[in-house]
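[Discussion] Sanity-checking designs against the backbone

I'm trying to build intuition for which residues belong where. Below is a structure token string of 456 positions. I'd appreciate it if someone posts a full sequence so I can compare it with mine line by line.
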């Protein structure tokens, strides 16, 4: 405890770090307050109760978790940051497939600024479409119509005005959320977009724990509740261990003699993480799986096709099979973006470095590529297993609310964002020659790639 207090004092004594922490908490507080600002024409108390029961076993409940409950309340932040993530995914795919965007990426800062501008414009388009689908779902479902004030006899609002004003407000809410995330990344602590998602998830965690405790009380099985907590802790430890796991490639540097001095001759290691893509593949996959829910919003109640309903149900085989496939694909895709074996081999050769037993140049690039390909597959399989753990735990009797935190996107995002933020704090402490956050050793390997990074 004394060591922890000493570390906290060191953290607060670093002026820049203190300023970044305060700035981050202020913007996160604004984000949470915004999730309680209700759209005009909606009775939040009625809507939240009806939506909670309707979307209990639906992907929309996961959207509501990411938005910190704003989706079910009908708040201006109901769509959260997901349209921006969807736009970022689209732009990254376009940057690989279209030569014109490939050239933009190679233009340095100016090219990245243009791509970021296109991403923002695309975010507005995605948000408008999703906002219309969200409002159409409210007006088309009889269960929700009791919460719509413009349907009452004494209302001054028409349905057209309801759609017009709320599409604008939902779009503005998402763009303001995106702005806050970017400001946290630039002036705060950690990756802003990831922190906003994490705050929305954590806001639901206390209620989920109390619900599971009440559920255990009804079954008179408090021992089973304690066992669930132990298993949950073990799953978290497993996620931390694998996300921090690395495969080290030995690199030797040739000796050079310049005058009376000798340079090089050192042995170093190139660390390649088993989960180099981090939590990004599961966020990408989840963003893609939000599209069926958006499309379903355009149908009237009862008119949604069966295959579309299957994709919007997190407990269905079709939904989970598609999620596993997308996670594996995006793991390889994002790893390919992070690592460029040819460039790594060229940089190594330029600095007189070589891998023992491997010729410099093409053979080195092929060797690194083979290593990355082999360790990426178990990483992809692992996060796919974590992604479907909520369904498995739910079938084993865990309460629906708590099972979302037993694995899946929520757990991976929480672990990833916490590790990334702790690593940044640890870096500030190490720069000032303080002890790190851990009593022995340091955090090994920064958990990168949580969300699309926007550069300015």
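Best answer:
Here's mine. Compare freely.
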């Amino acid at each position: 405890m004394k060591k922890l207090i000493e570390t906290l004092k060191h953290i607060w004594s670093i002026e820049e770090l203190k300023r970044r922490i305060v700035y981050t908490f202020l913007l996160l507080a604004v984000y949470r307050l915004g999730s309680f600002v209700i759209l005009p024409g909606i009775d939040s108390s009625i809507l939240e109760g009806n939506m909670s029961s309707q979307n209990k076993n639906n992907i929309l409940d996961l959207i509501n978790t990411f938005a910190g409950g704003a989706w079910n309340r009908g708040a201006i932040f109901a769509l959260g940051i997901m349209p921006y993530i969807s736009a970022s995914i689209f732009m990254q795919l376009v940057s690989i497939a279209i030569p014109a965007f490939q050239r933009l990426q190679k233009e340095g800062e100016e090219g990245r600024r243009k791509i970021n501008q296109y991403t923002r414009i695309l975010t507005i388009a995605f948000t408008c479409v999703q906002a219309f689908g969200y409002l159409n779902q409210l007006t088309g479902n009889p269960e929700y119509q009791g919460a719509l004030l413009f349907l009452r006899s004494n209302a001054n609002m028409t349905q057209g005005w309801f759609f017009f004003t709320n599409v604008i407000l939902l779009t503005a809410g998402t763009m303001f959320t995106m702005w806050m995330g970017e400001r946290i990344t630039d002036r705060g602590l950690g990756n802003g977009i990831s922190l906003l998602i994490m705050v929305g998830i954590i806001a639901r965690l206390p209620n989920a724990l109390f619900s599971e405790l009440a559920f255990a009380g009804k079954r008179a099985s408090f021992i089973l509740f304690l066992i669930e907590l132990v298993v949950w802790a073990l799953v978290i430890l497993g996620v931390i261990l694998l996300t921090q796991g690395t495969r080290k490639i030995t690199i030797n540097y040739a000796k050079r003699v310049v005058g009376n001095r000798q340079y090089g001759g050192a042995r170093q290691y190139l660390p390649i993480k088993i989960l180099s893509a981090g939590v990004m593949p599961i966020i990408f996959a989840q963003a893609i799986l939000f599209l069926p829910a958006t499309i379903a919003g355009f149908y009237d109640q009862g008119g949604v096709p069966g295959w579309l309903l299957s994709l919007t149900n997190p407990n269905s085989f079709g939904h989970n099979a598609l999620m596993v496939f997308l996670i594996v694909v995006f793991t390889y895709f994002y790893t390919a973006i992070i690592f460029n074996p040819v460039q790594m081999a060229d940089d190594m050769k330029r600095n007189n470095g070589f891998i023992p037993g491997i010729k410099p140049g093409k053979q080195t690039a092929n060797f690194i590529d083979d290593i990355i390909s082999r360790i990426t597959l178990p990483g992809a399989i692992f996060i796919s297993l974590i992604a479907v753990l909520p369904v498995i735990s739910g079938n084993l009797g865990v309460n629906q609310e708590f099972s979302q935190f037993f694995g899946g996107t929520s757990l991976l995002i929480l672990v990833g964002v916490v590790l990334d933020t702790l690593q940044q704090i640890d870096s500030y402490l190490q720069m000032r020659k303080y002890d790190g956050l851990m009593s022995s050793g340091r955090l090994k390997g920064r958990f990168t790639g949580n969300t699309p990074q926007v550069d300015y």
